[in-house]
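Table S5 (text form). Sequence records supplied for joint modeling of the two-component complex.
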Amino acid sequence: MSQLEIKDLHISIGDKPIVKGFTLTIKQGEVHAIMGPNGTGKSTLAKAIAGHPDYTITSGDVVLDGKSVLAMEPDERARAGLFLAFQYPSEIPGVSIANFLRAAVQARMAEGEELDATGYYKRLYAKMDLLKIDRKFTSRSVNEGFSGGEKKRCEILQMAMLEPKVALMDETDSGLDIDALRIVADGVNAQRKTPAAPGILLITHYQRLLDYIVPDFVHVMWDGRIVKSGDKSLALELEAKGYDWVKQEFAAATA
Amino acid sequence: MSSVQVSPPASLIGSFTREAFAAHLERVKHLPAWWLDRKRAAYERFAAAPMPKRTNEGWRFSNLATLTLDGFTLPAAVRFDQLEHRELGVTGAGHLVFANNRLVASQELDPSTTGQGIIFDTLQHALLKHADLVKSHLLAQPSKLGSDKFAALHEAFLEDGAFIYVPQGIAAELPVGVFHYASGAGAAVFPHTLVIAEDNAKVTVADFFRSEKSTEAHFACGGNDLYVGHGAQVSYIAMQDWSRETLSFQFNATVAKRDAKVLALNLHAGARQARHESFSQLSAPGAHSEMLALTVAHGTQEFDQRTLQIHQAPNTSSNLLYKNALLDSAKTIFSGLIVVDPDAQKTDAYQSNRNLMLSDEAEANSLPGLEIQANDVRCTHGATSARIDREQEFYLESRGIRAAQAQELLVFGFFEEVLGKIEHRELHDILTEIIREKFKEN
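The corresponding structure-token record, covering 697 residues in total, follows.
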């Protein structure tokens, strides 16, 4: 069974430390929700693990199935089984969804292996139907002119097509109305039911998402590390007490 | 009779001496006298005109030191089976194949098409059989963009080329393909394609420029004329893929009449140094011209593109979009001018040069320009140079796509705005393939 171990990770942007000793193990099939106020390092964590060049990992390790990913380029990490669902997915004019996803699927094939185009489209259309994405979208440019909900559904579509071992979902709920949220959650839940269910790190600001994607674990992040862990009831407690409670509870301890 | 003329200095004519011209004239002496007279006059203009100077505004940024006319010859004939010819890939489409200025193969049009009066033939045949048409349209526009010397050289040595005539109200369903090959070290070629679409006619022409070997140095001095009659529609797609050692000049002149629609797309992949001049004249109300170009510049290649959009009548529109992708220490120059005549009110003209810089050593120069004499017009122009967007690159790589492939996807994404305007799938694919192969060379 696959697992991602994040070990005492420290991440800086330039000289500024953002993540300060984050430790967590995510096993395949598990959903870990990370909650916390803005500016506490949640998105930094996700992007740095995916290999974004703006972030420097100053110490600690990220280990996927026993192998550190830190020396790998972003594309190698992805092929090793990591997936980042972006909070703000890039718009890429002139590159169609179909070509983009085909390139991503082909990148995972052995040298000389041919893509079965018929099988590829069949699989793509099935996933699109599930996510209620119009099939015409395949010829549209990646994320260009998409609504917030369309962008997020497109992220989940990519995740479904690429079948990662571990998915880092960065504020997938942001900018979604309740209907869009439900569709996105259904898409994620459908993947949780498959034998190849990924481990999921679900970064969110709001408890609302967790009504639809029910987590196995909830972690509260504050000032670059996990300060409290629990089950889904912790999310409800946070919702009731608010992030000010987190600040008061932990500010003293970290000062 | 004049006595033997003194040959002009070698610095002005290089390999294109009076003897070379006389030898060329001997080869085309069966053609009409008016044409031979024009050629003689053109040779004199060529021989008398100075080489471009640093101070010429029309040659700003161009590398003049490498514009030498030495070392070239009028090449011997080659056989079709000596070429690695690749077809147009459109079933039933007519084609003409020229190599070293001579016709070497052809696929005639379907008889049903010729029955409609469409003519697809060589310029030499057209000069003999359709002299009036050729006379009024071949090289009818004066050179205005700086290369009058080389345009005169083209006219003087033009031996053969393609002649495409579509009569009034006729639509040619299939595209026609014209292939121009250069073969042999130092070969000088003078390709030409003349397209005449009469009122309400429609035609698509694909013009290919290729070298038989990628390592030989050639001199290519070509031209094309597009005449687009009232309500006619012409798509002209040129693919310049000369050897990477070639010195290339290409002159395009387009005349669009009332409600005509013309699209000219030039793909520039080949040559060591390539100068392309494109002139679009919107001479009657409602005329529209799309001027498009894609360039993949690598190594130390230089692509020098000069354009002129002249709006002479009200309610005319033009849309120029030149996109360059630059690698290594390649260099591009774009200099464009929109001219709006005083009575060309309601002109809508657009001019844009976009450069994608894939290397810090590459150099893109842009000189957009406007000259507007009417007061009720909309003219926009602009130039941008940008690197690949790092967030887009990271997004693609985060999906497992390797860096080189991600870059290729982004370059094609950048080009798609132009590629997407090609209606014929096969032509779209051919262009895509040339671009892809160019990137593989790197």
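Note: Chain B has a mean pLDDT of 95.
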